[in-house]
Request: fold
Amino acid sequence: MWDYTEKVKEHFFNPRNAGPLADANAIGDVGSIQCGDALRLMLKVEPTTEVILDASFQTFGCGSAIASSSALTEIVKGKTLDEALKISNQDIAAFLDGLPPEKMHCSVMGREALQAAIANYRGESWKDDHEEGQMVCKCYAVDSALIKDVVQSNGLTSVEQVTHYTKAGGACCSCHEQIEEILVEVNTARCEAPAIEKKEPGPVAEAEPASKPKLTNLQRMRKIEEIIESIRPMLLRDHGDIEIVDIVGKNIYVNLKGACMGCALEAATLGSIQQKLFEDLGEYVRLLPASQLEMAR
Amino acid sequence: MTPIYLDNNATTPCDPAVVAAMLPYFTEQFGNASSIHSFGNQVGLGIKAARQQIQALLGAEHDSEIIFTSGGTESDNTAILSALKAFPERNQIITTVVEHPAILALCERLEKEGFVVHKLRVDGRGRLDLDEYRALLNDRVAIVSAMWANNETGTIFPVEEMAEIAHAHGILFHTDAVQAVGKIPVDLKRSQIDMLSLSGHKLHAPKGIGVLYLRRGTRFRNLMRGGQQERGRRPGTENSPGIIGLGKAAELAMQHIDTENSDVRYLRDKLERGILAKVPRAYPTGDLNNRLPNTSSIAFEFVEGEGILLLLNKLGIAASSGSACTSGSLEPSHVMRAMGIPYTAAHGTIRFSLSRYNTLEEVERVIAAVPPIIEQLRKISPYWNEATNAPAEKAFAPAYA
Reply:
């Protein structure tokens, strides 16, 4: 049996706002019977203020799908459409005091139904950019579709890299064999893929610079800032953030913020960012929490 | 409210007589059966008796054909890997699409290692096509492995006939019989089955004990290397309490085999008919005329299995489901898909599996409990129209999957 929270059970056994909504003017249908999850979200939106006056749902799915739908209708009531669009799947899961990793897709489906319903109200079309695969990393709820995508688009070749990019495999390590299999599959396909467009080699091949030109102090600091900026979206997605406090020689002092603060994986997060800095900067640097700056002084 | 357990194909409670037989083997009979002193000797005699009890249940010709293992999965793995090792010039395996993961996951791995795996398909009722089977037999096949009875539907495969066909081609035959033994009569000496897997906890013995039956004279290569236990075929100090328990359970299973096919079958049929009479758009799956007497698999259209199980559980009723959500994968049961059960029903398939401990009163309570649960879930299903009590007229077809 799944380790459902009391709140999930409560919302499954006594779903709020279940059934058709007669005067709904925004309807979002998502999911499919193949996947075993399908949800119709119905909203009654007040046209002048765009406030959601009423919401209801019909769901085909497991206990947590029904509970997530019920939670979603409770969350959106009274919100304006713009406020509702800010609701993330984590908000839905948090409302239920959390979902098992394998069941996080239920909360994702909730958010998608909301986006689809609002698009329906506004006469827009909504694009589902989300694909699901077999759950690989059960510690961090990472599925095969995401890992394949990240391996493919970043040209990853090792389990460590996959962990740095997705967190998958970063805790109990039981899924490393599966991650290795995905790496082999994707990278083999890449090697076998026929070259669609062959670039004619230029008349004179540009010579690789023998070594990277040395950066000035200012350039180096800007470069570090740039690299950190490029990493922030990844942290923001997990409700965390990072800021640079100071750069002292090889030591870069940073503050982790939001969900990253006190996260059990703080060290791993810092480690992977340090690795990225190291690779992009072409020199060895140390990434340290700002708390150590005081000590250094 | 006393709980009702209808999930006996998943596991069974230990019979109290089994527990009683085992208990001394934790304390006073703690010896190592390999020891020469009396502590060990007593245990050795106990194990010998248990081996004979299992020999009797399986109808094996010799008691040395019984090898104790840790359970069904180990027996299945040992059988297939042994055949591949013993016949290195053969690189093919024939099995079926509806096997237990103990076979299928192993075959998947072997395929990656370069072995060729043929999986026999099933029809809408879960039956094999023996002509397809015959056509696949060739001298590169090391072993055929087909389950005796399916865990989800109870459908029985003609394994005795399949073993004869395999032998006619000089090919080894293994059957995963963990669901069949104790529920239907088995007489191995009259068959040509070379290897058979049995699991203790499916027949009221404890978990962690099982058997691989190995016909005398069958080429065999053991999985693990170690001591001389089980004549060197399965090293490791014997799980003596488990073995004694399994022996007792085998003896009880023989006594109750007729009950399974009369009383348990009667209860199963009553349950199935009772539910189907009251719930629209529900149908039984599997080969209804040729299945285990204790198993009923019912597909409820337009609802999802986990919801049904959670609501049943609230009423103290335990069953199981072929739905994707209970297993953590997104695909519904491979058995339902193999039979071509449409997705609209495959996700809502519930398996009720009974045992000799179930009663008529329990079955009546379940018959009363199921219809309101299905109705409640259909009420909130977008695929169902509550007003007409029928599937939604305008099919629910989200543009976004």
Remarks:
- Chain B has two domains: 4-8+256-391, 16-253.
- The longest strand of chain B covers residues 295-300.
